[in-house]
Write a structure and sequence with these properties.
By secondary structure, the chain is an all-alpha fold. Helix 3 runs antiparallel to helix 4 and helix 3 (56-115) runs parallel beside helix 5 (148-177). 79% of the residues lie in helices and 0% in strands. The longest helix is centred in the middle third of the chain and has 60 residues, at 56-115.
Length: 178
Amino acid sequence: MKIINLILGLGTAIILGSLIHFGIRAFHPEPKRPDYSQVYPKAAPFREYNCDKADLKCISDRDEYYENERIRQEGYEKQNKVYEDALRVYNRDVFIIANIVGVLVFVAGFTLLFKTAIASQSVPIGIMIAGLYSIIYGYVRGWNSTNDQMKFFVGLVIALLVIGGSIWLIERYSRKTR
């Protein structure tokens, strides 16, 4: 029976954790990175320009080629900057959403833990692990896009919840065993 409980708990954690991750992606899609080859038409194939000082046509072609490449590169860099800014905002949003959902799922699992018999506690524990996974995913995804004060505040709330809940759970079980 213990193996079944372990499998149920792990399965619940993996499935619910994945569902949270895919739900965020489904309802708040990630910005798309610009594709250099699709954003800008193909340039003339690179060719080595070994021009004589007197060959004005070769020098003109070379300068035109390099100028077109510079313009293409600048355009791509502008679009990439827009993408990076949008990704920074997206990662911050994922941090917030994943942590809120993670805390709610963790609390739901914690609440279910007290409503179930000892033999069937693997599913609520799996739910709690999925909530913790969501919180960790939010931190990893939004680490560079979230300011330190927000990370500290959210971390403090989570620490109080997990540590306080764990202490309460230990007290509850120690009272039952006495």
